[in-house]
């Protein structure tokens, strides 16, 4: 009965925030997130743009055409002479990239596309932890708000009864004032929690790209959360999984491969490209109707692309060092996240599940004892304060436990819990 009362209070809490309350499980929220999130959709377009660059890299350069036509024949005094006495010439050329430049440019475009895909999944990883932590935080804060609703309602009823008794001269004014002060304190603390919910709802709506009037009420089975197999995980297993699934690490590896391929391209750029063509001249050459093959190539005497080759070599070294740093950081992140999960889980398991239920029963007895004057106001308020603090801290602990679990999922790059 007590649990049902808290659930009803929670639903009432939802209505105070918004007209449109949507009760969703995490799987439902994640499905909406994948479908609607604007940043993810934008990154998908970036992937398609990168794929288009592969198409562009495969294209040959267009041939070059040039021509000339005599506009006036001075001997015959004929404008635009198009007959045998007129002069016209044209030339067409095609650029041929030598030393495999075209294939190397295609390979660079492919690596860029690969990096864009990695960037999408890393963005998904980053946004997903924000989504899940705000989802769990909202759920546990709402539970605390519901507890405050219960206490505020109890004290409001007590205050009405005690104001009536004060009017009859049965109790001193200081008790009424003390009750009012404690009631105000409860409302203020509850308001602070409500402000947190408002902020987290704003974040959830932004991530889900939904309308501003929607209130997302998390639907969670706490028994499932409590049964997560944290003790089955090992550090070695998690580290190996992270190296396999961290897309930011894959992006850095792609950066190393990109710089290596770019070095090959820069070395190839030292080889001049060839322009091969055909030329025709009707009357301007040493014979009429002159036909010729044209050939054009730079002579690599001064510029052999030395600077760009050296730059690419240094960029490879820089990319490799950055990759090494990322690998070290990953290992430390996994270790830190794993230790946090273990500590939070150990603390959560050390709390007797009957603790709060016992408090629920005792608080009802405390109210009755105070009304019968069996305990003083100070004792009663102190007991209620202890109850309130215990509930809020327990919910915060459960929220911290889920936050640490999601942080572990984040650093591993895969949902392991």
TrEMBL record:
PANTHER family given in the database record: OUTER MEMBRANE CATION EFFLUX PROTEIN, OUTER MEMBRANE EFFLUX PROTEIN
Name listed for the protein in its UniProt record: Cobalt-zinc-cadmium efflux system outer membrane protein
Single Gene Ontology MF annotation: efflux transmembrane transporter activity
Superkingdom, natural source: Bacteria
Family, as annotated: Belongs to the outer membrane factor (OMF) (TC 1.B.17) family.
């Amino acid at each position: 009965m007590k649990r049902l009362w808290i659930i009803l209070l929670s639903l009432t809490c939802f209505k105070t925030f918004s007209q449109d309350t949507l009760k969703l499980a995490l799987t439902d929220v994640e499905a909406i997130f994948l479908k609607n999130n604007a940043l993810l959709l934008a990154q998908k377009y970036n992937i398609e743009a990168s794929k288009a660059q592969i198409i562009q890299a495969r294209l040959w350069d267009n041939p070059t055409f040039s021509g000339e036509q005599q506009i006036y024949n001075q001997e015959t005094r004929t404008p635009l002479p198009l007959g045998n006495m007129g002069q016209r010439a044209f030339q067409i050329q095609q650029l041929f990239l030598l030393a495999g430049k075209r294939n190397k440019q295609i390979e660079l475009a492919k690596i860029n596309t690969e990096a864009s895909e990695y960037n999408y999944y890393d963005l998904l990883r980053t946004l997903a932890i924000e989504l899940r932590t705000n989802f769990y935080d909202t759920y546990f804060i709402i539970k605390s708000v519901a507890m405050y609703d219960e206490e505020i309602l109890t004290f409001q009823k007590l205050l009405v009864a005690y104001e009536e008794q004060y009017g009859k001269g049965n109790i001193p004014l200081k008790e009424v004032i003390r009750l009012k002060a404690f009631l105000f304190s409860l409302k203020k603390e509850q308001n602070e929690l409500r402000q947190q919910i408002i902020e987290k709802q704003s974040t959830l709506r932004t991530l889900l790209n939904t309308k501003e009037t929607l209130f997302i009420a998390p639907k969670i089975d706490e028994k499932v959360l409590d049964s997560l197999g944290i003790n089955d995980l090992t550090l070695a297993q998690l580290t190996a999984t992270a190296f396999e699934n961290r897309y930011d690490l894959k992006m850095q590896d792609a950066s190393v491969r990109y710089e290596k391929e770019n070095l090959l391209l820069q070395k190839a750029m030292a080889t001049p490209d060839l322009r091969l063509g055909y030329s025709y001249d009707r009357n301007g050459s040493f014979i009429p109707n002159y036909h010729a093959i044209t050939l054009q190539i730079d002579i690599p005497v001064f510029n052999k692309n030395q600077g760009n080759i050296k730059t690419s070599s240094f960029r490879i070294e820089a990319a490799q060092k950055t990759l090494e740093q990322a690998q070290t950081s990953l290992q430390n992140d996994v270790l830190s996240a794993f230790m946090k999960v273990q500590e939070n889980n150990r603390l959560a398991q050390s709390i007797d599940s009957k603790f709060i239920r016992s408090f629920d029963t005792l608080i009802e007895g405390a109210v009755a004892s105070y009304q019968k004057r069996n305990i003083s106001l100070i004792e009663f308020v102190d007991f209620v304060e202890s109850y309130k603090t215990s509930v809020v801290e327990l919910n915060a602990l459960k929220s911290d436990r889920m936050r640490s679990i999601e942080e572990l999922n984040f650093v591993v790059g895969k949902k392991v819990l």
